[in-house]
């Protein structure tokens, strides 16, 4: 498989929360880079075009948009 990412992702296993206008959902952050992350949800849900990813233990907050999805796993791009 050819790597298309601009920045290398690093494996992590951290609890996070995605928040949007109608509420929030707990997630597990599986990997991260300067430009995005992959998260895993407990069940497939419909998400808006953009939302915020927060990782409380790291004081990390980024606005995101989904770029790919595979069942309960979602790839995110951080929005500048």
UniProtKB/TrEMBL annotation:
Q: Which domain of life is it from?
A: Bacteria
UniProt GO molecular function: cyclic-di-GMP binding
Q: Which Pfam families match?
A: PilZ
Q: Which SUPFAM superfamilies match?
A: PilZ domain-like (SSF141371)
Membrane spanning residue stretches: none
Which residues belong to any copy of the PilZ domain?
3-79
Q: Which InterPro entries match?
A: PilZ_domain (IPR009875)
- The name under which this protein is listed is PilZ domain-containing protein
Q: What is the lineage of its organism?
A: Bacteria, Pseudomonadati, Pseudomonadota, Alphaproteobacteria, Hyphomicrobiales
């Amino acid at each position: 498989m050819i790597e298309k990412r601009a920045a290398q992702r690093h494996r992590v296993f951290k609890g996070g929360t995605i928040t949007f206008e109608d509420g929030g959902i707990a997630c597990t952050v599986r990997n991260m880079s300067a430009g995005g992350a992959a998260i895993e949800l407990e069940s497939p849900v419909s998400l808006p075009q953009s939302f915020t990813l927060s990782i409380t233990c790291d004081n990390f907050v980024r606005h995101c948009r989904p770029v790919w999805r595979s069942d309960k796993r979602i790839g995110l791009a951080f929005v500048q």
